[in-house]
Amino acid sequence: MTELVWDGKYINGKRQTPVRVALPFQTIETVNESAADRRKTLELFSAGQTTAWRNRLIWGDNKFVLPSLLPEFSGQVDLIYIDPPFTTGQDFSFTAMIPANDEYEQDEPTVFIKEPSILEQKAYRDTWGKGVDSYLQMLYERLSLSQELLSDRGSIYLHCDWHVGHYIKALMDELFGEDNFRNEIIWKRKGGSANPQNRLGVVTDSIFWYSKTDKIIFNPQFTKESDESKKYVEERFNRTDEKGRRFMDSPLVSPNPRPNLTYSYKGYAPPPNGWSISKEVMERWDKDGKLLFPADKSKRLRRKIFLDEYIGQPVQNLWNDIYVINSQSKEFVGYDTQKPESLLERIIKFSSDEGSLVVDFFCGSGTTGTVAERLGRRWVMCDLSRFAIHTARKRLLSTLGIQPFSVQNLGKYERQAWQSSEFKANGESTELKHQQESAYRRFILDLYHATPATGHVWLHGVKASRMVHVGAVDAPVTLSDIRAVAREVWKASNGSGEGRKAAADILGWEFAFELNETARQIAAESRVDVAFKKIPREVLEKKAVEQGDIKFFELGALSVGSKLKKQEVTIELTDFVIPIDDVPEDARKSIKHWSQMIDYWAVDWDFKDDTFHNQWQSYRTRQDPKLELKANYDYSEPGEYKVMVKVIDILGNDTTKTLDIKVK
Question: For the chain, what are the domain ranges?
């Protein structure tokens, strides 16, 4: 077989293989899980027993997510659908909206394009930085792992356009085998338009369908919407019965000799080969009015096929009956590359059964999981974009009868692997580990443009007269950390003899829940000005670091009030402050009230200092942009409860707040 070779497939004569480090997933949120299910899950987990299945929405780079899925799902996935970015960086852009301010009757929503984050830009550079070569290497690595995930009955559908389709066919032939190529499906995604000056307009996409073996799940589908079906209906269903039902007639002749089906019926002689149905079926169809009796009994009985019972023509590989999503569609959620639910419904029905596991690791707005949920399939979805994960979560919550699902990432485990790889320690001694941690902190300080500082325990650098603390790779910044930093900042500032301001920037990968407001209060009591800034995940990406694409953003601040009446608690959002660096200057003028920056908020009424359990939520949609700012809950038993509130802003970033509630 002819082999497709690209720059990067071989280095020094050795084929490059995908990353195979399996990292543990961290569940950061469960959605729609009842208190009873939560207790049962905890009991099963504590007893070392298998817990109930939960569908999964994973935020992370599929480069690391796929090998981390293998230990659990190798050979168990019946269907993979992926729609990887073709050739445009705008695949990572999304349409963000500042909703209208309800206090102003004439106020209108403001729409703006949220440009790709640095992490998404980096993924785009990795994918297209060397043109088609880097794109093919990216796909080769992901598809190699996909082949291992597929069950023996499994299929993979890869959606692409004319730019790279010819390369992808050769690549998939190599990985899955030419014998396992099923079809190239041609989807006509839009109608004709004026042609470009020197070529024909492109109105189709390709979907390459491969299987793992020849023993696949295959459920034939039918359509009444294709041009062929419409023509068939118009030409064939040309008769009407006494009730006004359109029908066509069809012969009841067996193509081969069938002595057991050779019988007379109501004076009509059988055909030479016999009828095509048994006498029992003939009698049933007669009773149901599905037989056509000619006046001349020397002629043949025929079957009536009613139009209202016609299932359509078999679906072939040309799909011209599914229309592209447009901005006015009820399905549209702001992604230009969003695919119609009817497209995924057809694919999922073709190549999976109820209960099958369906995977999409370029999930975008979550169409695959939404349709899989509705069709009774299990699903796992993954995307690099935080906003995609948020959009998919809202979309899933809008699905009738949605089952509980988990939101996961690789979190600290991915960072630990990065630290061990980037800052190697040749040994396990305490001193070597300390050297590794020091190298890591110097690296972060350099990215923050701070100067390393010595002679302190909690303070690691200084920038513009502000001390800098760098949080650990594998642990959140806690209140006890803040107290220690504040004490040391005060001591350093007053003992320096330089009149240095008592101020600190605290950099962390994660921050303990509700840390922002409480920590600021603690720091203020110590007369220290603090700012909390998140270390972005882009730090893990070498190319982003090399190009200076690292930005540290301040945490948001959320204020929540509460009222308790007997056993019912009412909580209310009262203020929300976040940096608006990513909102264009002209769009900022539309922000007249803090609530306009909130897209979604959710509540865990009994937070146990573990995973956030999303038990109530209010969120904006294009059809209903109004957001509730109050939520009520009636506790069944007295006790002390911790309530956690999670807010997600219009850019997809989350902020949390906890409240202590004492129910008597």
Answer: 23-91+145-218+316-409, 238-309, 417-553, 556-663
CB 52 within 8 Å of CB 128 = no
* d(C-alpha 517, C-alpha 624), whole Å: 31
Q: What angle do helix axes 479-495 and 515-525 make, rounded to 10 degrees?
A: 30
Output the 3-class SS for 492-560.
Answer: HHHHCCCCCCCEEEEEECCECCCHHHHHHHHHHHCCCEEEEEECCHHHHCHHHHHCCCCCCEECCEEEE
DSSP string, 264-283: -BTTBPPPTT-BSS-HHHHH
Taking the mean position of all CA atoms in its chain, how far away is CA 597?
22
pLDDT at 518 over 80: no
Q: Whole-angstrom Cα distance, residue 585 to residue 594?
A: 17
Does 3.30.300.30 match the CATH number of domain 23-91+145-218+316-409? no
Per-residue pLDDT tens digits for 614-637: 999 999 988 888 999 999 999 999
Interval 138-156 mean pLDDT: 97
Cα Dmax for the chain: 118
What DSSP assignment string belongs to 63-75? HHHHHHHHHHHTT
Altogether, the residues listed in the chain come to a count of 664
Residue 217 has pLDDT above 90, yes or no: yes
Instruction: Give me the helix-helix angle, 386-397 and 367-374, nearest 10°.
Output: 20
Per-residue model confidence (pLDDT) at position 264: 95
How many beta carbons lie within 10 A of that of residue 53, not counting itself?
12
For residue range 329-351, what is the model confidence (pLDDT) as tens digits?
A: 888 887 778 899 999 999 999 99
Do 377 and 350 contact (CB within 8 A), yes or no? no
Q: What is the pLDDT of residues 372-401, one digit of tens each?
A: 999 999 999 999 888 889 899 999 999 988
What whole-number distance in Å separates Cα of residue 328 and Cα of residue 324?
11
Tell me how far apart the alpha carbons of residues 7 and 140 are, in angstroms, rounded to a whole number: 12
**Is pLDDT of 551 > 80?**
no
**Do residues 505 and 531 touch, judged by C-beta distance below 8 A?**
yes
Residues 521-535: pLDDT tens digits? 777 777 888 888 888
Exposed, middle or buried, 437 (CB in 10 Å: 0-12/13-18/19+)? Answer: middle
What pLDDT sits at residue 189? Answer: 84
Encode 121-185 in three state secondary structure: HHHHHHHHCCCHHHHHHHHHHHHHHHHHHEEEEEEEEEEECCCCHHHHHHHHHHHHCHHHEEEEE
C-alpha pair distances (Å), 531 with each of 255, 483, 496, 583, 656 = 83, 14, 21, 21, 17
Q: Which position has the higher pLDDT, 46 or 431?
A: 431
Return d(Cα 619, Cα 605) in angstroms, integer: 18
Portion of the chain with pLDDT greater than 70, in percent:
87
The residue among 113, 112, 211, 195 whose CA lies nearest residue 156 is: 211
Indicate if the pLDDT at residue 497 is higher than 50: no
* pLDDT given at position 413: 84
Classify domain 556-663 at the CATH superfamily level. Immunoglobulins (2.60.40.10)
| Strand locations in 365-465 (E) | 378-383, 405-409, 451-452, 461-463
**Distance between CA atoms of 63 and 138, rounded to whole angstroms?**
8
